[in-house]
Amino acid sequence: MKINVIKLIVSILIPLAVGGLGSIVTINQIPTWYAAINKPQLLPPNGIFGPVWTTLFILMGLALYLVWMSKSKNKSRAYLVFGLQLVLNLLWSVLFFGWHALGWAVVEILVLEAVIVANILEFRKVSKTSAWLLLPYPVWVAFATYLTISVWRLN
To answer: What's the domain range around 92?
Structure first.
């Protein structure tokens, strides 16, 4: 497959932009509200989250690119589910960090996890490689689910 550099860049920038929007909601809360709440013992250092999420967003972008470049005619549902999981990803940041709605963040991240799995299944129909690229995402979100539930219970 010949690489279309413009489509590749756009594909990667879409999830990175969503991550950037989420960080706008998050960044000011880290040294203030978030620093003051109770957190679980298995919480990684704050410096871990940025690189992990950036990597996951790049993998999402690469997966999106493979779907976009596919000759498959059944891409519309894959795009829809991909977009939905991006919206839900952003919504978690708004609920948790922006509104401090910890209970709603728990409910939302459980829905996000289900939609990520649906995204992988839809991408697999178009490109198996794209589905493989997404596999670290639900693993990390499962860990984030543990953290979200723990923070909710501790506070």
So the answer is: 5-154
| Average pLDDT of the residues of the chain | 97
Q: Which amino acid is at 18?
A: V
Orientation of helix 136-154 relative to helix 102-126, angle to 10°:
170
Please state, in angstroms and rounded to a whole number, the distance separating the CA atoms of residues 1 and 57. Answer: 22
Tokens of 42: 């298995």
Is residue 29 within 8 Å of residue 99, measured between CB atoms?
Answer: no
Residue-wise pLDDT for 55-109, tens only, equals 999 999 999 999 999 999 989 999 999 999 999 999 999 999 999 999 999 999 9
pLDDT value, residue 144: 98
Instruction: Yes or no: say if 105 and 95 are a contact pair by the CB < 8 Å rule.
Output: yes
pLDDT in tens, 121-132: 999 999 999 999
- What is the number of structural domains in the chain? 1
Look-up of token digits 């960090």? 97
Query: Residue 17: its pLDDT value, please?
Result: 98
**CA pair distance 14, 70, nearest whole angstrom:** 18
- d(C-alpha 96, C-alpha 105), whole Å: 5
**Residue 98: CATH number of its domain:** 1.20.1260.100
